[in-house]
Specification:
- This is DUF2000 family protein.
- InterPro entries: DUF2000, Pep_tRNA_hydro_II_dom_sf.
- The structure is a single chain.
- The protein has helices at 16-33, 66-78, 96-104, 122-128; strands spanning 4-11, 42-43, 49-50, 58-63, 82-87, 113-121, 133-134.
- The protein is α+β, with helices and mostly antiparallel strands.
- The protein has one domain: 3-Layer(aba) Sandwich (Bit1).
- Strands 5-6-1-4-7 form a 5-stranded mixed β-sheet, with helices on both faces.
- The longest helix has 18 residues, at 16-33.
- The radius of gyration is 16 Å and the shape is globular.
Amino acid sequence: MYENKIAVVILNDLAHWQKLNVTAFLAGSVAIAFPETHGAPLVSASGTQYLPFLKHPVLIYAADTDEQIKRAFNRATDRELHIGVYTKGLFATKNEEGNLTEIAQHIDSELDLAGIIIYGENRKVDKAIDKLKFHS
């Protein structure tokens, strides 16, 4: 059992490629920000070294409405959890500068969220994602 949890909340009405894209970017944000989440490199019997996984499971939840994802965002904020965001506007950006500009245009309460990632203590994350179902 892990002390911390990683939860991704994705809007259910996104295109399949968008859901995968958002999940990949958000999982990378936790890996970058928290080196303690990195596992050891995988090594085959041939001695080939492969990239490590995150040590924690990444659980993916669906938000059927903008209100559901915003509720999880607000509950995670209230519990002082670590949050990553992916806004709908990021689908139109082409580089880091565009990404930074897109997010900087909005105050937190006006972020048009397509997905979020929450990282922190198991119980607090569970409370933040309360009432959401696993993505299917």
